[in-house]
Amino acid sequence: MGLPYPKQFLPFRGHTLIEHTVSLFQGLTEELIVPVPAPFLARFRDLLKGQARVIPGGESRFESVKNGFLALNQLHDEDLVLIHDAARPFLDVSTLKHAIEQTNRYGAVIYAARATDTVKLTDNNKRIINTLDRNSIFLAQTPQIFQAGILKKCYKIYKSELDHPTDEAAMLEACGFPVHIVESTPRNKKITLKEDMDHIESNNTRIGHGYDVHRFDEKRPLVLCGLKLPTEPGLLGHSDADVALHALMDALLGACALGDIGQHFPDTDARYKGIESSLLLKKVLKLLDKRGVELINIDLTILAQIPKLAPFMSAMRQNLALLLNLPEERVNIKATTTEGLGYIGEKKGMAAHCVVLVSQSKGENIA
Ligand code: MG
Predict the structure, then answer these.
(1) Alpha carbon 184 to chain centroid, angstroms
(2) Measured in angstroms, how far is the CA atom of residue 325 from the centroid of ligand 1?
(3) Ligand 1 is an ion; residues with CB less than 5 A from it
(4) What pTM value is reported for the model?
(5) pLDDT of residue 316
């Protein structure tokens, strides 16, 4: 990165990179050890006071991790040791539970990313020898999680001076212990270049708001959040009149400065007559995808005096999460009456508000 100090001191989300990464593990681990370059020991200790035990690292990653392992107190063979690189601050901690279960089963598990580019094997002159089957190629990342007993055995028998392993899994492999992978998400990126940091530091989140109203129509089915609900009345509209998805789509388009659904799917266009709004949502999501925009979370409020929506809330949330390909914890739906006030209270129709947060991936332009 060409910095006069370790990149772990770079500002990240209001703190330093190291503070952020360490904070991911608070409450998850019994002991947290951070091996660091000796000249910066005091500064790291100052930053991580009360959060982690800071110790001198070694000449290489391998030596640093070994120092960290040896510094762990009262380690039992069945304990798990989790090794993580401070330069991977985007670790999705919710996937750790699965990785830990796998480690209890297999003894050694590492995060790895599926190769997405075609992989070539070359000789020293950079001439291609072979094209490898990328379906069986995975790129090793961290966390790497091991049963302490296995690591202890490997550190005893492994001659690191002969080989310079770039990760701990390589040591286990050399010692004959099986290592399994868990597939990581693309989010688990490593910060290696100054540009990575610049992209993160630049404000790449955007907000969008959508609002929609539809009048009741007793002759039509009620469709909300992509589900045909077994209740009435339904809503009048050119499409299926899914007021919730309409507000959501407007919020998504709004976040990307792409206008509104009226512009993209005009109600004068016969193609959209009676169309399921979930199909329109798919088109909107494709537009976002093309621009490298990722949805972070949504918050949807439905205003309805009638019918009672409580029995359908959880099904609607599930379906919305499915349509958006988001975990349910990032999808919120609320419903409210208007206490009999206004056109909603007079049972003339239904309205919906939606707020979304999106982020723009590295190197892409939203508009
Ligand atoms: Mg509408």
Answers:
(1) 10
(2) 22
(3) 212, 246
(4) 0.59
(5) 98
